Every structure is written in structure tokens, then in C-alpha cells.
Amino acid sequence: MFFLLMAAVAILALAGLAYLLTRFRRFKLVRRLNEKWRWTRWGIPLAALAVIAAFGSIDLLDTAIAVLHLTLFWALSDLLGLVLRKLTGRQPERYWQGALAVLVTAAYLGIGAFLNYHVFETRYELTTEKDLGTDRLRVVQISDSHIGTTFDGAGFARQLERVQKAEPDIVVITGDYVDDDTARADMVSACAALGRLKTTFGVYFVFGNHDKGYFNTRDFTGEDLRAELERNGVRVLEDEMVEIGERVLLIGRKDRQDPTRMEAADLMEGVDPSKYAIILDHEPNDFDAEAGARADLVLCGHTHGGQMFPLAPIGVAIGANDLAYGLETRGGTSFIVSSGISCWAVKFKTGTYSEFVVVDIS
Predict the structure, then answer these.
(1) 356 and 142 in contact (C-beta within 8 Å)?
(2) Residue 217: strand pairing partners
(3) What does the pLDDT look like over 37-56, one tens digit per residue?
(4) What is the dihedral angle through the alpha carbons of 282, 286, 288, 292, rounded to the nearest 10 degrees?
């Protein structure tokens, strides 16, 4: 699926590039140069291609995303120009559509970059009739940090300083803590930062689909990650349950792609229904089963909130996710899906924003 998606992006980007080169010739200055010197007819397109190739050599996927968005906005600008010409019957002297497309694309992706790199704090307030053993339980959720994408280990540690200011009772990490190209040094320093957090009930972790690695290209394994987390006092849960205080249960599930993962009902079998049960599940794909198992709260990540518009509604429509972002209630179960504290592959978030989540349960 991943390779098919990347192939589709590549094909569309190449088609978009061909379209953009034909549009670029419509600028008044380019037309004049082409009329004066024949070599500019191929020299200017080659220069444009060289600039795009230079950016592509630094970050191929983000360059392709930029080309796709510029193509879309340019096509819409051309359509707007066509409508205006039909309405007014006038042919404008200047080709303003191209300038408009460039400005809109720059603004749109500029905002997307800001929403990716700037981490917001998102708060939810939930209530329960169950006795929590305390007036309020504050859970801070960190998801999809993909260490090494938007920030390294030191950058992650700076984000944890903000988490600490939220005064969490418990911190939970709902998967994709690292990526397939995360450096071991960054992984180690990020785990050490987790070890410095001060909480009432500790820090807990469940694996995501990237944490154990897909291609064995990095300099540490999933077991190395587990060992480093545990060395810093982080409890790793794989289809396991722990008691938080005396009245709260925390259940950490294996990732959906793990063939040994237990069913939600089996995990919750025999659980005291008077206790508040929180499930950590990286991928938001098992809501009905988790609601049927009578969990009180399920915390998920994985989707990045859709990351690029309009992927969020598409993912839900095709059944890839039960929810792309936010809070939803099914029966007596609350589900929260975080957009993640970082990104994966693409350095823009145009359909959401980066966040860590603070949940107050009372």
C-alpha cells in the first residue's frame, strides 16, 4: 500500500510538473524573452526543472507535495480566469493566474509547515460516575513523535518540558515513538528525557507500527528501544494491564499489525466493572470491540489527524480508521485520537496540527 501511494504521488507530481511548465510560459516576461531569444524556449524550462530538482535532492517527497499543490491551485486559478473572461468578455494583459497560484501555494504550505512544527496543547475534560480514588486524574498523551522527523532527541526533550508544566498524574505514549530512520543517539536521549518526567503514577508505552522497524535500516532494534525505555523507568505494555492507584486500570494493546495481538474482549475479561478502564491502542481501528469490552476511555494515535487535507475523511470513508481525529463516544466509551506531536514523511500538516493531549477525568 505504501509503495502504491508513493508511486501515485510520483506519477501525479510528474504530470503536474509538465502542466506547470506549459503554464509558466504565459508570463509576460517569459513570452518576451522567448520572442527575443530562441534558446530561452528550452533554457527557461530547463532552469525551472533544475531548481525543482535541487529541492528534490534535499527532500524528494516534500518537493512532490509542493508541486502537486501548486498544480492544483494553478489549475483552479486558470479556471477562475476562464470564468472571469466569460463574464466580462475581456482578455487581461497580464497573466495574473500564475502569480495568484504561487502566492496561494506558498501561504497554504507555509501555514501547513507552521502547524506541523509548532506543537499545541489540546485539553479534554471527561466525567465518570466511577470512583477514581481521587477527585481528578490528569492523563497526558504523547503520540507519533517519530523522533528525527521534525525534532531530534533534544527537541523532544524540550517538548517534554511543556508536558511537565501540565503536571500530569500519568503520561502515556501511544505508539510510533521512533521511526524507521531514527538515529540510536536520538532514541537514547529521548528515552532519557522521559526518565526525567515527574508524575504521580508513571510513564507508560505501547508500540506503534513504526517502533519495531520495517526495513532494518536503523542502528537499533525494537528490543533495544524497549530496553532503553525500561532503563528510564517507562513501563512497556503489550496486551498487558496494570493498576493505577486502586481504582483505575490501564490496558496497553499490541499494535494492530501484530498477528499475536489479543482481542479486546479477552484483554478485558474478568475486569472489575467498577474500576475505570483506560485502553492504549496505537491505531484507531477497533472501536466497536473496545466499546463492547466496556472500556471507559481509549487513547489512540497513528492517523496524524489526516495530516494532509482531505485524507482524514477519506480514511474514515474507506474504513482505514474508525476516527481520524478528536473525541467520539460510543456507548459508555470515550475515544480520543491524537494528531500526534510530530509528522511522518511529509513536513506539512494542512488538515490538522501537531499536539500533545491533556485529559482531565473527574
Answers:
(1) yes
(2) none
(3) 776 666 667 777 777 778 77
(4) -70
